[in-house]
## 1
Amino acid sequence: MFNRDRSKSSNENDIWRFLLIALQLGLVLYVIDLFHLEEDHGLNSLLPIIFGGFIIHSWLPKNWRPPFFFLLTLTAILFLFGAKYGSILIGIGLGLIAICHLPLNYWLRIGLILVAVSVLAAFRSGWMPSDWAPFIMPILGSMFMFRLIIYLYDLKNESIRPAFWQRLNYFFMLPNVCLPLFPIIDYVKFHRSHYSADAYEIYQKGIRWMFRGVTHLLIYRVIYYYIIPSPTEVNDLNGLVLLMMCSFMLYTRVSGLFHLITGILCLFGYNMPPTHNLYFLASGFNDFWRRANIYWKDFMMKVFYYPLFLKMQRFGQYRGIIFTMLPLFVISWLFHSYQWFWIRGSFPITLIDGIFWCFFGLMVLTNSLMQAKWGRRRSLGKKRWSFGRALRLSLQTVSMFSLMCFLWVFYTSNSIPDWLALLSKAANYETIDIVRIVSVWISAVAVGVVFQYLNSQDVSLPSLKNVIVFRPAVLTSVSAFLLLLVGIPQASAVFNPQTHDFIESIRMNRLNSRDVELFEKGYYESLMGTNKFTSQLWRAQLQEPQDWKLNLRENGLAAPVEDMRLTTLNPNMDHHYKRAKFRTNQHGMRDKAYDKVKPASTYRIALLGGSHVMGPGVRDEDTYQWMLEDQLNLDSGEKEFAQYEILNFAKSSWISFQHLLHCQKQVVQFAPDAVFYVTHFPEEIKTVERLTDCIMNSGRIDFPYLAAIADSAGVHKDMAESEIQRRLKPYAGKIVQWTYQQFADLCKASNAMPVWVYQPLPKTNKLKEPESKIVERLKGYAVTAGFEVLIDLSGVFDGREYSRLQLAPWDKHPNKIGHQLIAERFYQELINNSASLKMGVQPVKAERK
Amino acid sequence: MATNTQTIKDTVKNYLMTEFLPGEDPNDLTDTTPLVTGGILDSISTFKLVGFLHSKFDVKLNANEIANHLNTLNDITDIVQAKQGVA
């Protein structure tokens, strides 16, 4: 009777604990959904599977849970990748596991795995083309690229043989289906951890970690969107210190993801140890190595350090440490590139990475040798308070943080000259800056001392140990609920507009201004910044096929020229570009054939712009220029001209002064009646970037005015890119204004009407400055320069889902539907401005195509 | 010759307290205190411990055993006994 009552009470208690966990999980998942966390990778689609899976899983008999987790992961794969790609992913994965267990000699199996991995690498690199590899390889790679190494290592060395389902679950982990940045997990720890403690304690730990992950990711967003300056904006010591701190703090993205993933694993009984442990509070290099990305460190220790050290011991303790540690960090460096290879398809080996890892390795080695000689102070439980000790630890911690900030800005720099140019900004300071920085530094040390004092005292809240899950449950629930309240648009509307906009902006998953610039610029592939996990850019490229990355020149569609245009389109091309038909006429325009001499009774428009006008990724006849011309000619309304021609002089990557040069050299020869200059972005920034390219590539500047500006800014060919941009930025507005002026004057001198057009792209990326403000400023330049007609296509995509108007998730240029919308709106604007443009087109009531 | 569980545990605990945790309360070091994940054993001290186990109990650990079986006093006792049993 007594036992029955106790069992009943335990069951009731379990139900309450379960409900409490389910409530918290619901809240945390809702926060993830509300703030669109990791939405690009499909985490939002996975949330119902996580929630529903947890509910069913937790009530299943214990021996049913591993197969259920496996099936849940397969379901998620098929759901996110579709039947075709999902089946390929599952099939390859199961095949790799099967090879590990073939009844063959161990080394023969290793050989077979190497062959299989080499074939997969050929697909990943694009050497063997396939449509599936770019989509599934990042996930397949994250599941297998390191775990196969650990698995094979443990198969050889471990006597423990986990159950069949646990082996499958080791590779097919639910969170990996959409989060590829979590490749390493120890096989022994994984299977040992399964329900290694009370189930509800593990679940509660999982919720806590998930929430911690969410918090880290939100902190990351605030820093990434609002605080970190672009390196080209750094002009003095204050800016440099801010950039250094923010660069290092962006690592919260990695720790946030790891917490989120291990939290999800806890929900399914895998009681995994922490992946990060207060790494900003490391007091030395060894300490940092132990605290940040612990799974990586454990992997390196297990598979390389211990076996190597046992062999090197014969050289004595100190030499043994040296001979073991130095290769360890070189391997670490190469493995980071190896990880990137599976995620992105390229194997980046860069000097900056090499220097960073070697320096870091040397520091850890020095620390280890010192500890081997003099020992290291360790403690159990609470440390006893001593002011001297607390001060020393605090000084070490703040110094280590400062040093890591310094190192991190190097690690994330594009090149060493860029980094040196950035450091040179430290010379620009005022006394107050030094006072401010030193004060903050001393305050941080003081806070560390006070924190250690409080930590040594018993200042905790009254104990609630009797209720194991209660306190963390309340903390998580209340915090998640508050985040929900802040995040729900209707609720955040009660704040003032600025706060509301800020919250709305934080809710969005986007690139910051600097990364938008790089993304737009199209050469981000070569930038080091995208090789770092802390950058958001790599995600945008994750699924981009190899052939998509080829630019016009690499596709044989453009060739270099000896002037500031750098490249021009080749004439008479018939080729594919970004998987769409791309033809050029005899004059090197992406257009049908036109005579240079304008036919009689023809109104001719010359259209100039960048990629947004040229129309990459859509067929020639699906560009809006083509559709617009057809529409003007098909229109049955009253028309003054027999024919309307729109000549497409656009070319990807050209900007203001390059169009001006092209206009001088080619466009005016076609005697256009109007020249439409189409812009789509804050031109000042892009103009500075392109002028930097010109200076760096050839050093040739065709316009004396621009050459004079380059002289005034003191820039030259051999200078670091970021330094050139930094120095040119103050002149950006002047350059655009001058270019517009030259453009308008040239048109008028050629009897063509200069027309300025703003054409937005279908994308959600927000800039620090509102789009409307940018457009107004550009309009101001145009009016001052004497452009006679301004056409603003803002809002052309309003009310549409942008993703349906973009070429692909990795390419925000308009697709065919996007071009159609632009053509329709543009047509309307031409009709409305027909009189000013002297086009002689009357509006028609019907018969639009 | 196999050594009994308590003797191994006491010997190892005594070594850890003397070598790595001088001045700390021995009661804080329990059979399940995490030594590696808790930061008490790092790469250098792990090898010192491995050397100690070799000299004291005549057990030679391989790399895998060092990585996977030294996290708690219980783990250490188990692996020493297992190795002695094999020997």
## 2
Amino acid sequence: MATLKEVKTKITAVKKTKQITKAMNMVATSKLRGAQQKMDAFRPYALKFADVLGSLAEKAGEEASPLLIPREEVKKIHVILCTSDRGLCGGFNSHLVSKAEKFAKEKSEQSIEVVFTNFGKKGRNWCRKNGFLILDEHLGIVGAKFGFNIATIVGQRAVDGFLDEEYDEVYIIYSEFISMGRQIPAIKQILPIQPVESSEKKAEDKETPYLAEHICEPSTDELLGDMLPKNICVQLYSALLETSTSEHAARMTAMDNATKACNDIVDSLTLAYNKARQASITADLMDIVGGAEALKG
Amino acid sequence: MAGNIRLEVVTPEASVVSEDAQIVVGPGTLGEFGILIGHTPFLTTLKLGTLRYKDANGVEKFVFISAGFAEALPDKVTILAESAERRRDIDMERVKQALKRAQERLASKKPDVDYERARAALQRALYRIRLAETRS
């Protein structure tokens, strides 16, 4: 049996760990709130944007923008991988990375070259380790405060690269925030732009065809040509927001579990400590009683 | 006046304006446009500039807009802008810093400077300053 002192040190150590996990849990909770607020603030913009874009896309022909045309032969694809900078958030990053790994493997088997743009240190480290070409990396974005401009910069670069035929398809891997307890890694093709189905359906639901008699200035095609690249930025921004929110939610859950585990360990250690203490007291008593008996003789 | 039209200015980060206006005048890429209630459905791109509107009490207000879109419906105008600020919310300290940064970047002869972006930043800063300094 461990000595009293050993057990005591261990208890103190676990309690300290618990303090840390608890603090991290609380930090994650408050950051999560901030991230969710940002998501809420972004929603009206995104909805309106999708609305207008959807109805415009219906009116314009397929040739409106080169961003709509799929390439006949796909040789190289560009993946934007969003992960967090820091660990201690359960399986969050490993889920994302394994998704990316599976995807990259699939594509490599079709002899398609895969290049990456990374948000977050974890994804970048994985790319480095596996020898993927990294076009660009952005640290300190996911999980922190960031503005729309970062999405604009990266989005514009992706669009430029696509138009210069540096790569033939662009995907984004991010974590979809479903609920506090559920965040699943998702993959989305952002270039070439796929026909907007959801908004078409929405438009059908409405009694009057939305935007039917809009005057467009400049022409519909030009407007669409202007809006489509921006749509990439909007999608990117929303993916970044979701990943950030997911990261905090994942960390919160992970830290909550860790705190609980600490409690369990402290309980069982305290039990061991008390038992050891009891045993030593009993042993001491036995000695004294034994000694007294011997003196009585 | 027949009535007021609803004006919404939204950016990805926040909803900047949401109120009733008597008239809205915005900087379209093909020229300035004014919108009153009952306007024909209308969609246009916006360039860097100032959105003016008269609120329900007839007070004229100004909002800085960097490029975006405007959609007008008979009873509602929605402005989607990448960034927008009411005139009174313009932070002069920040703008001046941004201006200085942009000027330095343009003046430096380093090859990795993105001139296009720096010039756009410079323009935005200048426009904000001009707007903040015109008091009506």
